[in-house]
Give the backbone structure.
Amino acid sequence: EPEVTQTPSHQVTQMGQEVILRCVPISNHLYFYWYRQILGQKVEFLVSFYNNEISEKSEIFDDQFSVERPDGSNFTLKIRSTKLEDSAMYFCASRPRTSPGDTQYFGPGTRLTVL
Amino acid sequence: GQSLEQPSEVTAVEGAIVQINCTYQTSGFYGLSWYQQHDGGAPTFLSYNGLDGLEETGRFSSFLSRSDSYGYLLLQELQMKDSASYFCAVRQNYGGSQGNLIFGKGTKLSVKP
């Protein structure tokens, strides 16, 4: 069964550094998302992406964040200048054009640790 | 805005039945989803209710009452592997929403032998 994949599984970085988190959504899916989950807290929406542009973004997704689909398979999240509070698990998700209840398929996540 | 309330923790024994409730406040409503997340894992879709009533998928069922802004996830014949966090979620209410999900804080289910 096709899966969303994410790399790396764990990223450690120094405050102020740039990080790029990578995702490969399921191949026939059209909608892509990034969520984050701070340890012990709920999953929070960051951004959605469709037709090669951002559809919606949350308050969390400020100017330090950007997303890109550089080719037909990868979907990336860049944080330009990481802060301590960016430490979290970042999940990529995708879904096809139609799915019951907008069912989303999540990747295994990248744990980002900012020191 | 949208908010979802669910209990933080539930404990049950193997073979038992457990119900995890979720109440929601939304400015628009499309339906209620449930996701399971094991420790260190990704959220996995379990069930969706777009209409009032009960949806059954094997040992798991989900119920929705739109008039009460309430739903629940019912897990039957509990197994140790069901120990996980369970999140209810609604779709973000934007006019052109692409299905962004708003999650509750999650209910940590512990299944004891």
Remarks:
- Chain B has a mean pLDDT of 91.
